[in-house]
Structure formats: C-alpha cells, structure tokens
Amino acid sequence: MGYHPSVAEVILANVRPWGGEARDVVIRDGVIAEVVPAGTAHRAQGARIDGGGRLALPGFVNAHAHVDKSWWGQDWVSYGGEPTTQGRIAHERAERDRHGIPGVDGVVAVLREFLRHGTTATRSHVDVDLGVGLTGIEAVAEAAAVLGGAVEVEVVAFPQDGVQRRPGVLDLLDRAAAAGAASIGGLDPASIDRDPVAQLDGLFRIAERRGVGLDIHLHDGGELGAFQYELIIDRTVRTGLQGRVTVSHGFALGELPEPRQSALLDRLAEAGISWATVAPVRTAPLPWRGMAERGIPIGLGTDGIRDLWSPFGDGDLLRIALGFARLHGLRTDEDLTYAVELATGRAAGFVHRARHGIEPGARADVVLLDAQNVPDALVRVPRRALVLAGGEVVARDGELTL
C-alpha cells in the first residue's frame, strides 16, 4: 500500500495528547482541524480510528541525520579504518561505492525506519563532494518521493571532505543552494580546512547570496571550538543571518568554564544560533538549562545510522531523547518531558515548520504509544502502536503499513 496524503476527514478518537485528558483529533486534508473532548467529534465522512486511550505525541523531528550514507538493509559491514574524523572521511571515500552509497534504495530503507519509529520530518546532511557531485541530493529527493512525502526531508548540502582544501566544493555548494537545498553545511573550519576564516567567509557568502541557512559540524573542543563559535557569531550578525545558522555537535560548549560558557551563550542567543546534538556518550553535557532560558533552540538527531562511520543506530529518535536525558542527568517529570519536547514540537524550526504539535493547523503527524505518561514513554521506549503522517496511517504495532 502506498502513501497518499489524506484528502478526507479522519477522526483519531480517544487519545491523550501529551498524557492529558482524552481527546478526539479531527483531521481534514491531512491537517489537524480540531482537538475536542473524547466522544464529541462526529464523523462527517472518511474514517474513524480508535486510539484506545493511548498516549499521543506529535511526529518526531530528526534535526540531524545523514540519510544518504547508510548500509541499512544490506549484509553486515565490519568497522574498518582509523577512528579519527579524518580517518573516517578517508575510509568512507574508499569504501562507499562498493556499498552503493549514495543510492536511492539505501535512503528509502533509512526513511522507512524513521517512519516506523514515528519520525515524520528530518533535516538531513547530504554529502556534496568532488567524487559524488550532487548525486546524493538527487538520491534523497527520489527516495522521499518514493515514500510520497510521508517523511518530509529538508536537505543540508554537506561538504564532508572539507571546503577550502578541496577546490571546487564551494561551487558545488553554491549549485546545491541554487537548486533548492534549504541549507549548506560546513565542517570543522579549523581542524579540517585549517583555515577557519576562509571556510566561513566562503560559506556565509553563499548563504547570504542564495538566501539559505547554514549548519556547521563542529567537533573541535575547548578554546579551539569556542574560537570558531565566535567567528560564526560575528559573521551571522554581520550578514543578517540571525535565526538561520545552526551549530551541530558543538562539543566544546560543554567543556568550557562557566563564566566563558555563559558569555558565549549570551552571544549565541543574540545571534539567533541554534544547536543540534545527537547526545553521544562520553561527551560533556550541554548547558541546556542556560540555553533554554536564553531561547537557544536545541534539536536532537540520529546522526549516521549503520554507516561507514559507525555500526550503531536504529533511527529511533525517542531513544536519542532518552540518551539526552541520561547524558544530562534528567530525573524530574518536567525535565524528562522536556527531552521529548526537543524531539517533537521544539524542533519545528529545524525543518521550517510554523507549528508542529497536536493542535489545529499542524500537519497531522501523530504517534500513539502504550504508556502512562511522557516520562514513562521516554524511559521505556515502547514500540509505536500507531503512526500517522499527514493523517494517513503509515505504521501499526511497530511495523510499516507502507
């Protein structure tokens, strides 16, 4: 069965949005039209789906993925190469062709896993380099079309092999932006290109000229990382790109002493810079409370899933939210719920959605779980009882219906 966005009325009856009182969710043309007390919505046409009193959450938003790189669905690929960032880049370049990376089938396999686990929107970095050109972006677009838009995919054209050290990559990024990529990316301007000023100046010129966003991977720690944050802040303000720049990973932020950290948070907030994290183990916790108090958006992502960088990952963003909670020592119901909010409505801006929730006007992306409340769902990570994308059922009892 294919996915076709809903054109009829659907009533998702007897569900508990965010663990609250039971409600009926009225969906018209794939969009939530009303949320009313359970038992009060009356069907005019179309279908009625009994939610069985289950916990209802908005579809998950994956704010940092690499859907073009996975070998999901293929025979097991043993980890090889050197464990450094440069070593992973070299290993991937040497091995990707034999695993059909990038390819439509591989992207479809990953997006299906996203859907099965309740992710209905993602921002994905897609490699753009001298070896693959823009073919990865083309594969991702085709894969999203195969699934009929059940997962909405926003593309970041990503220079995984560097920018300045690879002449011609800036031109490819410019072409990708001109062709419709929502953002362009960068990678460790200091440690990969070893010329942070040149890399950032080149990226910001493209972003300013093409009207796209910027999403920059930054693994460098300590003061080297902090120095690059300052360069990014200065350029963001100077070019008027406030609200359109994201730092991904940004490990250094959690490593800095508190006075330095607080001063940087103030400047990041003023520049409207957002943060994407995959909450990896063995990294310093982010100052998430200070970020929340200043309105700095935080998005959660799966990063790569079973790719030539790492054999880990299953596409379940709720599990990433659990990792965030554990890394940051969250315990109270309020804080545990906040971790889930990061994976849903609070991440709407990462995929340019004006609203994303179980509320009128939002796309009807709803996930049902057998859980007492949101903290219970987070700590147990139960299978998804039902997933709706644009008002259509795409997964039931943990299995895709597509």
UniProtKB/TrEMBL annotation:
SUPFAM superfamilies attached to this UniProt entry: Composite domain of metallo-dependent hydrolases (SSF51338), Metallo-dependent hydrolases (SSF51556)
Domain of life: Bacteria
Taxonomic classification: Bacteria, Bacillati, Actinomycetota, Actinomycetes, Pseudonocardiales
Gene3D superfamilies: Metal-dependent hydrolases, Urease, subunit C, domain 1
Ranges of residues in domain Amidohydrolase: 109-394
GO MF assignments: hydrolase activity, acting on carbon-nitrogen (but not peptide) bonds, in cyclic amidines
One Pfam family from the record: Amidohydro_3
Protein name: Cytosine deaminase
Species this chain originates from: Amycolatopsis saalfeldensis
